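dumping this here before i forget
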Amino acid sequence: MSTEIDTDTDIIDLRPGKPASPLPHYGWNPRICLRIGVAIAVAMFVLNLAVATDIADFVPAPIRLLIALAGMTLVPGLPVVVALRIPGRALSAALIVSVSLAVTILASQLTMVASWWSPLRTQFILVLLALALCAGASRTVPSDFRLPNGERQRLRYVDRSRAIGFGALLIALILFVVAAARLDVAAAGHFGIVTEIGPIYVLGLLTLCGTIAYTLRRRVIDHVLMAANTVMLILYTTMLVPVATGETTVPVAFVHRGFINILAQSGTLPNSIDARFSWAGFFSAGAHLITVADVPDATVLLLWAPLYMGALLAFPLYAIAIAITGRVRLAWLAVVIYQLFNWYQQDYFAPQAVATIFYTTILATLLWQLRRSPLPVIGSGIGRFIVSAPRRTPGFVPGFDSLRTLAVGAVLLLLIVATTVSHQITPILVIVVLASFSLFGATRYRTMWLAAGLVFAAWFSYGATDFWIGHLQSIFSEIGQVGNSVGRGVGERITGDPTYQQMQYLRMGASGILAVVGFAGWVLSRHRRTWLVAGAVAAAPFSLILLQSYGGEMIIRCFVLASPVLAPFAAVALAHAGNQIRKALNPVSSANHTRPRKTRPSYGVRAAAATLALVSLGLLLTTNRGLNTAFEASTTDQVTVSDQFIAAVPPSTTIMTWSHASHTNGVRRTLDPLGPRMMFVDSYDCANDLSGCALARNPMYVYVTSQGIGMALLQQGMTQEYLDAELTAIIDSGLYVPMIEKPSITILRRVDAPAIEFESP
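structure:
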C-alpha cells in the first residue's frame, strides 16, 4: 500500500511580504457552496408557492421531489458548515447532510407534537432560515482562503486513465441494467437470489471490481473516480432486486409508508397504535416531504432509498476511516470493505438509516478533533492512564478557537436531539460513545454524554410514554439477559428449511470475518492516537445486548453500528498482510539490500488478485443480502392490488392474511374506526391447519402474498404442496372464490362479500 497521507492541514501563506500565518481552510469552495444554498432555497420557495397556490402540477412530480429532497439534504447545512470552516471534504459533506436532515426532522416533529402542523408554513420558515444563514455565512468568508491541497488540480484532473475508468463504469452500469431486467425474482428459493443472477451480472461485477482495484492501486488516488466507484458498488450490492421488481426489497418499508401517510393526513401523532410513533421524527419529516413536494405518498421514495442512504453514509464513513488510518488509500478501501460486508439491509427507507448517518457523523467529528488537536501526554503505565485520562482535555483543533469549538459542539448536540426523537436504540449508543471519549480524555466535550443522557431521558419520559407504559415490565425484564438477546438474535433465526438454515451461517461467517480482521487491524494500529478510543467505540455497540433483544434484532444492530469502525481497522490489516506477502515474495538481499526483480509479481497479477478478491466478496454479499428474497421482495402487482383492495373493501371488513400484510398498512386500516380488521396466523394450531383456521374464522376475504408463502416455506419449514392443498381446500369448501390470482398475490372472496374490480398497474 502507498504511504499517501491525508492532507487536511492548515496551509501557511509564504508569499513575499506576507506573515507566516495559517489561512482559513475549507473542505469545499465556500462561495460555490453558498451559491448552491441560495439556489436551493429559492427553488424551495418557488415550489412552496406553487403548492400553496395549487399550480404545482406545472412542475413534473420528479422535479418537485428532487427539489424537496435537495432542500432537506443540503440546507441549512451548507451555510452552517461554511461558517464553521470545517476543513475536510468528507467531514464537511457529512455535516452538511446531517445538519440539514436534523433541522427538517426537528422542525417537523416540533410542529407535530405542538399541534402546529403546517408543512408549507414550516417550509417557508426553513427557506428564510437558509437564506439568512447564507447571508450571514458569506460575511465570514475571507478574501483569501485555501481548499484542501491539490483541490484545483483534482478538479481539472481529466486524463486518459479517468476516461477509461468512467468508461468501465458505464459498461458495468449497462450490464447491471440488463441483468436486473432478466432477473427472475420469483424463482428465488432457499439459496436466495444468487442462483438467478446470471453471467451478465457477474461480468458487470467483475468490470466494477476491476475498476475499483485499478483506482485503488494508482500512485495518486482519483477521488472523483473512486466516489463514482463507490456509488456503483452500492448500486450493485443493494439495488439488484429493487430495480428488477420496481419495488423495495424490505416489506417493512411499506409500514413506514403507511405511518407517513397517517401523519400527513391527520397532522397529529396517534396514541396507542404503534410504539414506533414514540420516535416519529423520521416519519414526521417524511410527511413534511411528501406534502411540500405535492406527491401522493412515500411510495416513490422506497425504491431508491438504499442507494440514497448508502451514498450519504459514504461521507462520514470516509471521514472516520481517514481519522483512524491517516491514509487516503486505506480510507477508500475501508469504504469498499464496509459496503462489501453490509448484508444487514438496514439502509432501507427507515429511521435507523438516518440515525446511522447521524451517529457516524458525530463519531467522525469527534475522531477528527482528536486526530488534529494537541493532546497532553499522560505518561507511561496503565495505572497512571486510568487515573489521569478522565481528567485530560485535548487542545483546540488548529485554526479553531473556543467559540468555534463550542459551535461545533452545538451542532453535535443538534444531531443528538434529532437522533433521540427518531430512533430508540441509536441514542443509547451515542451516550455510551460520548462517555467513552470522556473516559479516555479524548474530547473537549467532557459532559456532552450527560447532556445526551438528559435529552434521551426527557424524550423517553415525555415523548415515548405510549411505549414505556405498555412495555415497562418487558423493558426491565430483558436488562442483563444476554442469553435471551443472543438466542433471539441468532438461535431463533436458524429455523425452517434445512438448506436455508445452512445459508444463514454464511451471514454469520461474513460478520465474524469482518470482526476478526478488524480486531487484527486494531492491534496493528496501536501506535495511532485514535487507537484506544476507536477500539472502545467499535466494541460499544455490543454493550447494547445487555439492555434488550430489540425484537431479536439487537445482534444485527450491533454489527451494523460497529462496522463503520471495524472497516477501517480491517483495511489496516489487509494492507499489512499485503505488505508481508510482498516482502515474502521479494526478499531483501543481505548483500546489497535490493529486491530480486524475478520474484516480484507483476502489476497485472496483483491487480487480477485484488479484482478476484473483490468479486468473491461481492458475490458473497449478493448471496447474503439476497438470501431472504423469497419472502421480502415485493412486486408492483402486490403494491397496486393491495392499495386498491384496502381502499375498496366495505366498512368493518374482516381479512385473514398468511403474512404480516405490510402493504395494507395505512390511513384506512389504522385510523378509520370502521376500517378493515386483519386476522393473522397467530398460533401453531392455525399454522398446522390453515384452511380449517380460515374457515373457522370466516373472514370476508383471504389475502395471500408471495411473502407469506416464502416465510412459510423457508422460516416455518412448510412445503409448497401443503400450502397449495390448504388454499385449494378453502376454495373447495364452496364458501370462497378467487377474486384475483397473480404470481405474487392471491385474494379469495367469501361468496357473499362484495367483488372488487382491480385496475391494471
